[in-house]
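Changelog note: in this version the structure field was regenerated for every chain. One regenerated record is shown below for reference.
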Amino acid sequence: MLTACKARIKQALVAQGIVDRNVCMNAGQAGQMRAKPYAVLHITSDESEFDGSLVSTTADPATRTVTKLRRRYRRTIQLGVALIDKNETLCDGRAEQLLAGLPRGFIDADGHYIALSPGRAKWSEDEGFVLDETRAELTLTFAGGIYVTETAPLVDASTAVRIDATLVPQGA
């Protein structure tokens, strides 16, 4: 899921005009960047919690099986996107372009939906005027899951076991 999220953001950054080699996929690559604009992607947080909800059920009469897709864990990833440009106006324009171009979510390679929502933004300028750059740090939250597929035999209702019982109220 993390790779799909980073790839989606990188695709959006390249679409708005940041050169592919100027999109750093981790903070270590950022120290080598001199050409502006550039962007740095880094993980802010990655949380998983047990879910267990049933997502879909498919019956196949030919093989007499039922396939259930379950979300084992709900996973939330916060990804920081640092946009660095020459001045505040250019940086603000890039941030707005990025947010305007992002979808509310997307389907990953396995066919699962990942929701996307923007969060806060943090701004900073070069205090020493050495690098002459402005930095906008955007936080994007991706919500998806870790899924498992379970297969079970299909039960025929006409041959299923039937239990007849009479309920007697307590104390009668």
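Spot check on this record: Residues 2-46+76-141 form a domain with the STM4215-like fold (CATH 3.30.2000.10). The chain has a mean pLDDT of 86.
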